[in-house]
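Appendix B. Raw example, untouched.
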Amino acid sequence: MDNPTPMLRQYLDIKKQYPGTLLFFRLGDFYELFNEDAQIGARELQITLTARHKDSPNPVPMCGVPYHAAAGYISKLVRKGYRVAICEQAEAASKGVKLVKREVVRVITPGTAVDSQLVERTESSYLAAVTGDDNRVGVSFLELSTGEFSATEETGPEAWAKVAEHLGRYAPSEILLPRSPDARFRHNLGLPTPEGLGLLNVQPNDHSSAPIAGVVTPIDDECFASDTATKTLCDHFDVKDLSVFGLAGRAHAISAAAACMRYVQDTQKAQAAHIQSLDYFESAEFMVLDAVTLANLEIIRSRNDSSDNSLFSLIDETITGMGGRLLRAWLLRPSIKRSEIQTRLAAVNELGDAMLRDKIRLILKSVADLERLIGRLNLGTASPRDLVALKASLDQSPVISESIIGSKALLLQVLAENIFELPEVRDLIARAIVDEPPQNLADGGVIRSGYDSDLDELREMTASVKQAIAGFEAQERERTGIQNLKIRFNNVFGYFIEISKSNLSRVPDDYDRRQTLTNAERFTTAQLKEWEAKVLGAEEKMAVLESDLYRSVVDTVAGETRKIQSTARALATVDTLCSLAETAAKRNFICPQLHDGDEIEIRSGRHPVVEASIRDSFVPNDIYLNNSTDRLLIVTGANMGGKSTVLRQIAVIQILAQIGSFVPAASARLPIVDRVWTRVGASDDLASGRSTFMVEMTETATILRNANPRSLILLDEIGRGTSTFDGLSIAWAVAEFLHNSPERSAKTVFATHYHELTELAESLPGAKTYQMTATERDGDVVFLHKFQPGKASKSYGIAVAKLAGLPPEVIARAEAVLQKLEKYELAVFADEKKDGLSLAAAKAATAQVSLFAVSNETTLAEVRDVDPAGMSADELRSFVQHLKQRII
């Protein structure tokens, strides 16, 4: 800007302090944006772009939004990944002051949003920070709106991959990285590169195949500095060391957590006292569900990226937002502690009493989101209505506590003990705040009459003066004979007498002219000036006093943060348990039986989401798996026969059980599973140059490297993305590896169209074959959806193609080609009219070496390499037995 005005110079000085943000600069009743900020704001918010000093050689681009409606505009920008700095007037405008002081009071970023317009009711919005080196990586997660704060540290060659898994599960809205190694860290985590970030140095992750969403924000390396990280956290939590949080010796986890804390303090201009604990967690503390598995099983979102038709949407019967977030957290991180799961199941079972459950759920409808209310209170952004909502919610806590205190379920008893009634807090709010306060403190009328005598006195004086002014208006009408004489008020001229031009001849001599309008004149009098001074002085004092009283109430309530948070967590848990009980009653779920063995035994199991979405009745199925005789189930059957549904319902039932939910089955005996692995469906990653088959192989490789006997593996159509024999070979080898490897031999369900794989059941002692049954009636395929032992004879692919609407001539040709393929073993162009010798030649010409011949050839090679003379009788017998198992 050339020769900027004092106001624009002030803007530029503040803007320099907040690079990478859009600066909302308060001017009167508007927030204004200038220069590039204005261009971005106008484009993203679809508002008019104008200019200051339009007629000058260098006009300044600008746009603005009304301050009272700013929340909606800010929400749009933050959801798009932008950071917004709110710059307010730091002093009241007064006569003689040409330029009021302004300062940034808060920076709103995707990971630090707390306002209701910026955060979803049942979703957590995490701020994450990552730092580390080649073999040790720390990561922390902070949910600022509720104060939830956790951190962990991973070591070894897979450390970065494990941290990427954590990021995939938590799905943070914003990820903090140290600025100097930013590009390397992005690469290690599979995050988008910083190229083309432009003005704001932020970029929403729209890389659809990447499991990690959220904005990546590079910050100064000093924010992660290990020499000051411990002090930052100790000062905040007022502790001498961090061993109380399990962080002793976890330098990278401490640095990551400190970066989160510093970022919050810098952006919020507050100490965030509601962050009262820091939890160190290990991956082994819960069932691991990576981003791929969560997507494949549609745990939180469906395949079309909708929240509808997901497992969460089906079982979410919660009343409160905090209950919904807790249920979501349980689904993302199911428990592996049998005692914890059993206590939840016992509570859900007791809440099966419809009268008790309905009573609690009715009370919960009067409970607001206490977790986020207390967060806003501590961050200084709570409105007067938030205080009233807090009081109304706490009024319900004694009723809920009394309802469950006598329960047989231990968990309900513990929850009742952690619900605090807080009568002092409720009484203070009731005495201090009016029942229906305005949304903004500045609007006045927040403090209840009778709470403070000084405020009451000022209000009485103001009311009496305003009454006198109203009487003065009637008096002057009678004295002057001007019937349309009016006494008005505005912020610029204060109180004034307004008289129309037609009545100016009647204006008394003691009136002083103040302003001339087109159709009227404005006047004042000595008496009106005196009253004006009294009213304005009193109102200014009232505003200051009411603000001080309100802040005092907020500080007192915030002093009980720990008890309010305990109450909030207890009520959220009660809400979640009631939700699970409500779902069980509505969906006909039963209580699973957990055991310490390795058997999964499900009778008449159902996929709850599929069952709820189909018109016909769902066909239930039995499942049996263990780690010995039935550890590899090879499932064949028709397309659309239900193989994928059965695979997914096994995992869904297991996950539901481990969050403490009843399950959709007639009965279920289940072990504790530490991880569910899935390789289901087809997807590519074109932006990274990975084909569908490459994605499939990458996901399969991850499973083969990391599975263990406590895992549950679900594989669907491994090897289908390449040629028939390549795919069959890979599928065979994968199945064999999962069966034979002592370290990776997990319970595995392997759905396939390679019917040759069923031969594995004859050579592998822990393999079993199952089929999804179908039959043909009058030339049409009928899917029975029944999961039964045995091998399917065909896949009915052409029948499905017919149902999909392929042209009849295509279907006819496909059937003809299939007949030749089956008869002549891939000799599609063989002539059936030729003699047998020619047919044999055609078959020989097109024959390929089968996988099984290769397998047998490998066995023969072993025989050639053996020296029988050097082996004992027992060794020979053992070797022969080995050969019998290898021969196909």
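End of appendix B.
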